[in-house]
């Protein structure tokens, strides 16, 4: 019994030795004196060559464009046809490049067609719809905000920077078929517009509007809409508004002040109309405070003050019906129409 | 179009307060002044941020102390050299400098960190009501006094004193005010 155990352990030891002797597990001992030199050499080589060039995802392993395209549609929750999605991502520059490539290779384009459509028309369609819907929505949410302000917020949402930000975050960069790499911002923006256009064309307009509502309009959360519109003469606009409502002309009054002899002076000015406080603001000097108080009063009158209700987004906006053709009043026209008579004489 | 920048300016602006130390306890006053000097009355208060206000104190020569404190309260000082210790009674220190007691009371009440000296520089002490104009123009508001000022008997009119309800009349020979004591010829001749 004892002998058999000993024999077994011996065999095991031999087996273990055998496995540890495999060339992969050889442990090096001692100092690697040349290690530093090797690393320095590698470093210098890298400096000479420069950084690794950026490569498109398709140049790496495990890339299947059809699968990615299918996954993209599912990710967004829009069941678009594969051909439509392919059109959304095909840019004109890409198709031209492909055609030229085939010509150079001597392939006859009429016998072997490219069967690709570019997204120019879809992008145009998407842009028109997005622009129209955003403006309509803003006018519905801020009915007293002047048209210039609506345009400013619209431009903010439709800016290349903003649409590029949205486009890159829903992952359309890798799927784009375009000649420029790394992808230009304008190409990403065009693709996003084309996507909206495609939803409108294949599904319906409502579906495309839901897309705009879920992806573009939420970017307004946390944004002060008053910041986007730069008013040059707030007091003039305020005077016109009060004049149109037959209220008393704005009368600035110093409410309180502190440290007037110091560099950190602060003045609080309130704007009164018919003995009613309609806006107040602090400022470093009385004139700055007066201008800021006028801005505050404007915010209150246009109902875009900080205490305004939250934007209608998500489920709240499901049954939103508004007239997209209705426009708000333009500030310039309004001033011309309602400027007090004395001021009009002075300005003329 | 917004005015968010100036809202920030107003949040961090320092306001100026005035405090009348007439007939006020310096230690109780210090407790209240320190709140304003540190900015503890502001919603943005944090012990490490320097957001305290300025406080102008007038009439420091007229502070009051309870019980025997003028005589018995002692202020200590050590020069740092051997034998450099000295102590002074409150009345003597007040005699030497009539803003010093309030200064020391506030200084010892403030937390002993690096902000203490800076906060003390925002405390402006004046022995009487004569405050330079450039300081007085900065002032926005006043700080409520810590105790009611007692009204001395000589401030009451004769009518008020006569109308005050009495339980009994003092006998005529009972002397309340020695200065108004009638001279008695019978006793005068013995002096």
TrEMBL record, chain A:
An example Gene Ontology CC term for this record: microprocessor complex
Domain RNase III residues, every copy: 72-204
The keyword Ribosomal protein belongs to this UniProt entry's keyword annotation: yes
Upper taxonomic lineage: Eukaryota, Metazoa, Spiralia, Lophotrochozoa, Mollusca
Domain of life, source organism: Eukaryota
The organism of origin for this protein: Patella caerulea
Compartment(s) where it occurs, according to its Swiss-Prot or TrEMBL record: Mitochondrion
TM region(s), chain numbering: none
UniProt-listed PROSITE patterns: RNASE_3_2
This protein's name: Large ribosomal subunit protein mL44
One of the protein's GO biological processes: mitochondrial translational elongation
A GO MF term: ribonuclease III activity
Family per similarity comment: Belongs to the ribonuclease III family. Mitochondrion-specific ribosomal protein mL44 subfamily.
UniProt keywords, alphabetically: Mitochondrion, Ribonucleoprotein, Ribosomal protein, RNA-binding, Transit peptide
From TrEMBL, chain B:
Key word Ribosomal protein present: yes
SUPFAM superfamilies: Ribosomal protein L13 (SSF52161)
Keywords assigned: Ribonucleoprotein, Ribosomal protein
Record-level GO cellular component terms: mitochondrial large ribosomal subunit
UniProt-listed InterPro entries: Ribosomal_uL13, Ribosomal_uL13_bac-type, Ribosomal_uL13_sf
Any single GO BP term: translation
GO terms of molecular function: mRNA binding; structural constituent of ribosome
HAMAP family tied to this protein: Ribosomal_uL13 (MF_01366)
Family of this protein: Belongs to the universal ribosomal protein uL13 family.
Protein name, entry field: 39S ribosomal protein L13, mitochondrial
Species, as recorded: Patella caerulea
